[in-house]
Design goal:
75 residues, 0% strand
């Protein structure tokens, strides 16, 4: 009895360059979407770090003022 061969795929085999040629230019819209998101995230990190630094500097100034006021008190 002869053994029947089953084809692996019903689609014709094409060269990889033909497959990728259909998808050219898809990176440009993806980059156009991702770059503003990355820029916004970077600016958010910069703003948050500036606020954190401002609060830290204010706390240091308050601690220094408190130390100075305590040292001026007469016991």
């Amino acid at each position: 009895m002869p053994v029947a061969t089953i084809p692996l795929s019903t689609r014709p085999v094409t060269h990889p360059s033909v497959v990728f040629a259909k998808r050219r230019g898809q990176m440009i819209p993806l980059t156009a979407i991702i770059l503003p998101v990355i820029l916004a995230f970077t600016l958010l990190v910069v703003e948050v770090s500036e606020r954190w630094l401002e609060v830290a500097m204010l706390e240091d100034a308050l601690q220094a003022a408190t130390r100075s006021a305590v040292q001026r008190l007469d016991y």
